Amino acid sequence: MLTIQENISLKPYNTFGIPASAVAFAEILCEEDLISLLQEDLTGQPLLILGGGSNVLFTKDFEGLVIKMSIQGIKFEETAQGIEVTSGAGVLWHELVVYCVTQGFAGLENLSLIPGTVGASPVQNIGAYGVELKDIFKSCVAYEIATGTKKIFTYNDCKFGYRDSIFKTELKGKYVITSVTFKLSATPKINTRYGAIQEELQRRNIAQPTIADISNVVSEIRVGKLPDPSTIGNAGSFFKNPVIAPMQFQELYIKFPDVVHYPLVDGYQKLAAGWLIEQCGFKGIISGNTGTWKHQALVLVNYGGATGAEVYSFSEQIISKVNAKFGVVLEREVNIL
Ligand code: FAD
Ligand code: EPU
């Protein structure tokens, strides 16, 4: 039975560990819960769909209803095209990865150890170590908040981009994703394109890696680089890696020939935001209760007792210094609330 709780602390529900509260909070355990919630009159109050809270920063209390997605369940079907795995929105992402790797279903292994839930994965088209969600996405089921209508979103409907989808743009806050279907394969296409994976495999003397090897190696690299939110509050990369036009890149490259960059199509270049931030002297610094991570300047952290406003204001300083030095404006990846 769906219950709506009042005046709930959101601190346990965000990986930054920021203290904030919500006026109302509803945990959705099954589709029926969501259907009955959407039958209520929700107009006039702000709504926030929340998964694992690993990509949000609360800068103030949330003056509305938090819809916490906890729908569980994983099932699969073998088809002529491969294996289709469908997962409830509330399943932890890494739990799904482990399930698939254990079953021998290939496709998710490079995305090991990303925090958060399956339902949030299409929202920013999660990506890591040479793979993005869009590469293995088939469809998702979502409910329109305004009407309660159920809709299936196909790959083309989602308009995926780098850390982007229709759920972050035109349809931001308008649909609640209840399940996601992935197209996986029993015959793995091992992807070791991301340099650090190859190095780590060589170090372990693994010449013919399995998907379990890839999952282990990616997990180990991540643990070495990123702070564990259970001990140091953070939301992963705070900013996106900026993409700049060919002309701007030429000018930048002349001044900074060691700028870390990745070529895209038509001369566009993606820059490593972590490098830009480090060059401005921010790597591993502590500023009040916040700062950046010692191994990854792109990750802002809560060193204990930080408020969301403090983290946000620190992020403003970073944007301003990077812009002054490189003429590049960083865009936040984390959802600011
Ligand atoms: P939340 O933070 O709860 O929500 C994020 C956004 O999605 C919000 O706008 C929310 O409203 C919306 N949303 C959530 N669930 C639903 C739903 N069911 N329906 C509709 N909208 C929804 N991300 C990467 O892409 N790659 C990485 O390598 C990566 N590494 C990370 C490492 C660390 C240590 C941390 C803390 C974060 C990292 N992230 C990474 C960011 C984060 O894990 C992802 O963005 C993840 O998908 C967020 O999931 P969540 O359930 O916590 O979403
Ligand atoms: N770098 C620095 N200093 C730093 C950090 C990075 O110079 O402090 C440079 C290094 O040259 C390094 C390069 O940047 O080789 C790339 O760093 P890394 O491999 O750590 O990846 P990233 O570009 O910083 C992106 C994603 C991560 C994802 C990793 C691995 C974004 C915004 N971030 O980080 O995703 O896990 O690649 O694929 O695209 C997230 O989105 O929250 C996230 C953690």
CATH class of the largest domain: Alpha Beta
What distance separates the N and C termini? 29 Å
Taking the sheet with the most strands, its summary is:
5 strands, antiparallel
Low-confidence stretches: none
What kind of oligomer do you see? single chain
CATH topology of the largest domain: Uridine Diphospho-n-acetylenolpyruvylglucosamine Reductase, domain 3
Q: Biggest sheet, strands in spatial order?
A: 6-7-12-10-11
Structural class: alpha+beta
CATH architecture descriptor name of the largest domain = 2-Layer Sandwich
Task: State the helical fraction.
Answer: 10-25%
User: Any idea what the shape is?
Assistant: globular
The number of helices is 8
Tally of separate domains: 3
What is the H-and-E element order?
A: EEHEEEEEHEEEEHEHHEEHEEHEEEHE
Mean pLDDT: 97
The hetero molecules present are: flavin-adenine dinucleotide, uridine-diphosphate-2(N-acetylglucosaminyl) butyric acid
Protein architecture, described:
There is one protein chain. The chain is globular and about 60 Å long. It has helices at 31-39, 93-103, 155-158, 195-203, 211-225, 246-255, 273-279, 308-326; strands at 4-9, 21-28, 47-50, 56-57, 62-69, 74-79, 82-88, 127-128, 131-132, 137-144, 150-154, 175-184, 233-237, 243-244, 261-263, 269-271, 286-287, 290-293, 296-302, 335-336. Helix content is 25%, strand content 28%. The two termini are 29 Å apart. The chain contains 8 helices and 20 strands. It has 3 domains: 4-69, 2-Layer Sandwich (Uridine Diphospho-n-acetylenolpyruvylglucosamine Reductase, domain 2), CATH 3.30.43.10; 74-184, Uridine Diphospho-n-acetylenolpyruvylglucosamine Reductase, domain 3; 233-336, UDP-N-acetylenolpyruvoylglucosamine reductase, C-terminal domain (Uridine Diphospho-n-acetylenolpyruvylglucosamine Reductase, domain 1). With 337 residues, the protein is an alpha+beta fold. Bound molecules: flavin-adenine dinucleotide and uridine-diphosphate-2(N-acetylglucosaminyl) butyric acid.
